[in-house]
């Protein structure tokens, strides 16, 4: 009888501020290395979208906590076509609205929300570890809280100017200064909340993408993934 050889999938954790390139880098690496892809920010956005739809006052932590576990959130982890559904509704477009973007940090600061979504994220990571070649997970607390045992841990950065230019180009806005201000505000909120704030630690490798193309960043991270796989 042949003994079954089981290789555990690798986990690549990427944190960083808004517009640093987490989503595009993660998708690119996952595609290049045949890994799954999880955008945890999309999960916080999905819950925020649902609360806004329901008329829940998202500035009231008690109201947010009371509704945190109600809707079903389902994430598709194919990097070629990631999906996000709330109670069966495809919200991929809706969660990118300005209204959701402006309110997501408040929702993400509520402990009951984080407790629920972190548990869901860990379940998905375990599933990918056990049944696939691995997963790239990106967000704000992945290297520190969600998957501190990941084989590759990165803190992706870029200058405020570069991030504002990238985001403005993405949404076809000419108001780069306004975009930069909005990014800075969200970064401040995400970095100063009490629970699991965006934090750069010594355990995560810093990768400054300011002067690099997306392709260069993807190649660097794919190289780290290759090394981690070889060492596994
Ligand atoms: N190294 C890079 N150079 C230039 N543009 C980039 C780079 N990385 C990402 N981008 C672009 O910047 C925008 C924001 O990137 P995104 O991956 O959404 O960042 P984040 O997930 O960190 O908010 C996207 O339009 C993306 O294509
Ligand atoms: N792991 C995570 C991921 C996102 N969040 C919160 C904080 C972020 O401002 C929002 C939205 O995240 P998202 O990654 O979509 O943000 P950007 O792509 O940078 O605009 O969610 C979080 O608190 N923890």
From TrEMBL:
**Alphabetical UniProt keywords:** ATP-binding, Cytoplasm, Kinase, Nucleotide-binding, Transferase
Name the InterPro entries for this protein: Cytidylate_kin, Cytidylate_kinase_dom, P-loop_NTPase
Q: Which GO terms fall under molecular function for this chain's record? A: kinase activity
Please list the residues that bind ATP.
16-24
**Domain Cytidylate kinase span(s) in chain numbering:** 12-224
Reaction(s) catalysed by this chain's protein: dCMP + ATP = dCDP + ADP; CMP + ATP = CDP + ADP
EC annotation from Swiss-Prot or TrEMBL: 2.7.4.25
Q: Where in the cell is it found?
A: Cytoplasm
Q: Which HAMAP family match?
A: Cytidyl_kinase_type1
- Member of which family? Belongs to the cytidylate kinase family. Type 1 subfamily.
PANTHER family linked to this entry:
CYTIDYLATE KINASE (PTHR21299:SF2), CYTIDYLATE KINASE/PANTOATE-BETA-ALANINE LIGASE (PTHR21299)
Query: Under which name does UniProt file this protein?
Result: Cytidylate kinase
